Write the structure tokens for this entry.
Amino acid sequence: MGETFYESLMRRQAETYTYKGKLIIKAKDVQWHTSPQGRNAIIVDETTGMNAKFFGMLLTEIPPGRQSGLHQHTFEAVAYVLEGKGREIIGDQTIDWEVGDTFYLPPNVPHRHINRDPDKPAKIMQIEAWPIPIFCGISRLDQFEPAGPAPKIED
């Protein structure tokens, strides 16, 4: 006779304590892609082999004078500014950001990233909680507008 349900459950539970994914993604292995959001590099996700269960991580680069696509998603996220200065539209709020700032992106609230520097790209690192909603079948990303030129911003 094969494994009982209890034995199977205990075996599968024990397997969850043994991580089999990548422990490092080398800079030379980061792959950038273009999507309706703009230019991104997914770092922590099952697609890269660094398979975290509760969060994902990506880098977003916003060219000078450009903005990401307006979108919302069912998971929360935080963003840390690595390079540049910009503006964030989060629902009906507007916040300015610069290197070293961290901002929060609540679930189900439309938002976009805007690069305020006309000469240099902005780069942000985002930590997002997409794995669990995907696993539960409740993840959703709504794209309202694609990435494109940013509106003229007065300081």
Summary: The mean pLDDT is 94.
